[in-house]
Amino acid sequence: MANTKKAAKTKAAEVAAEVKEVAKETAAKTKSVAKKTAEKTKAAVEKAAEKDVVFVEFADKQLDVASLVEAAKADYKAKGHRAPKAVKLYIKPEEGVAYYTVNDKGDADQKIDL
Questions:
Q1: Residue 104: φ, ψ to 5°
Q2: What CA–CA distance (Å, rounded) separates 103 from 88?
Q3: 88, CA 20 to 30 Å: which among 27, 47, 65, 70?
Q4: Measured between alpha carbons, how far is 103 from 89 in angstroms, rounded to an integer?
Q5: Which residues pair with 102 in a beta bridge?
């Protein structure tokens, strides 16, 4: 019976060693996957930052069109609507405003000051 207990302890030690090795391998793979994911995320962020930028300049003002679109979305949402998906912007520098439509629908109230 003493041999059985000794054999069981030896077997348990072997299994524990195997589990430890598998845990190390899994941790290494997890780190590798995390690193690759971080690299892909960084690349996606950099690619998104490379978008074209359009400025409108008039009367000593410079307007970033993307900022105006975001302002129109924020204005629409502030008026109690859901975040819009499709926004069209109509910049009227002579009036000092930009009108916008959401899903091709709009009214005179849908405007932002420049």
A1: 65, 20
A2: 8
A3: 47
A4: 11
A5: 87, 105
Per residue in 35-62, pLDDT (tens digit) is 888 888 888 777 776 678 888 888 888 9
Amino acid letter for position 111: K
Under DSSP, the state recorded for 84 is P
Instruction: For the beta carbon of residue 87, count every other beta carbon within 10 angstroms.
Output: 17
- What type of residue sits at position 28? A
Q: What is the dihedral of CA 103, 88, 64, 94, to 10 degrees?
A: -140
Strand, coil or helix: 90: strand
Whole-number Å distance between alpha carbons of 40 and 22:
27
Residue type, 91: I
Calpha distance 84→110 (Å, rounded): 12
Q: Which of 63, 77, 53, 59 lies closest to 113 in space, CA to CA?
A: 63
Q: Which two tokens stand for residue 69?
A: 């679109």
Amino acid at 37: T
pTM, two decimals, is 0.53
